[in-house]
Amino acid sequence: MNRFLKGPGPRLMLALAALVLTGFALSYWWLGNVVHEVAGTVAIIVLLRHVLNNGAWWRRLGRGRWDKRRVLSTVLTLLLALDALVLCITSVVVSETLFAALNLPGIFVLREIHWFSAYWMMALAGLHLGLNGHRIKTHLARLGALRPTPRPLRWAAILLWFAVALQGVASGGVLGLWPRLSFRYSLAMWDFNASVLPYFLHLGAFVALFAMLGWLAGKATVGDGHRSDAPADGRAPLSDPLTGSKT
Asked: What gap in Å lies between CA 74 and CA 64, rounded to an integer?
């Protein structure tokens, strides 16, 4: 079972599951506190499993050649790890199930940090997925989930992605995410009594926007003449932090 979870396919599924669960937990006013905390706890467990799967990547962090692509990928991964750590710690401290009766000092500030880190988790995860889009595509093809498609269909898919990303700009405004990403308050509150599905569609478009930005950043940093994750000592390439693959 442990070996199975370390495979490229399960690694990718764990990363996507953590993203979906975090997005699901963001709908606090629809879920209620108990379901929100359960979903958040499961998301944290999945994230911890993902971190354990990538122990080799962390151990080899100081090895190999460095180019713009690897610097960008490493900085983004470290920001994700830091945000996940903040989210994990604040999740425990602000839990109404565990500590509601204690009336801890500074709890409101900690709740703010918890909210902002959750919103940033969605943005950073989108960037991470987009930056590793070529690896994700490769592994989906190896798993048989992707078939060779004609060039017009590929361009149509890219244009559709751009359209969804543009919608993500508007969706970020509808959900009040842009002020929150700059650590400011927003009066935008989704009315879950009126509708539920559009909320998650807006959130998905928001993530797709950052995935597009990550993909474009990856395209802009390709072409330094060598593989950014290839160790300088000539040993096997470093594992990718998302899928664990050798690239």
From this structure: 12
The three-state DSSP-derived secondary structure of 214-238 is: HHHHHHHCCCCCCCCCCCCCCCCCC
- Is residue 123 within 8 A of residue 181, CB to CB? The reply is yes
User: What pLDDT is attached to residue 223?
Assistant: 60
Question: What are the tens digits of pLDDT across the range 65-92?
Answer: 888 988 999 999 999 999 999 999 999 8
**How much is the average pLDDT of 136-160?**
82
Q: What length does the chain have?
A: 247
Q: Where do we find the tokens 């370390």?
A: 6
Find the DSSP H helices in 33-132.
33-53, 55-59, 68-93, 96-99, 107-131
Please answer whether residues 183 and 109 qualify as being in contact, where contact means their C-beta atoms are separated by less than 8 angstroms. Answer: no
pLDDT average, residue stretch 191-220? 96
Cα–chain center distance at 237: 23
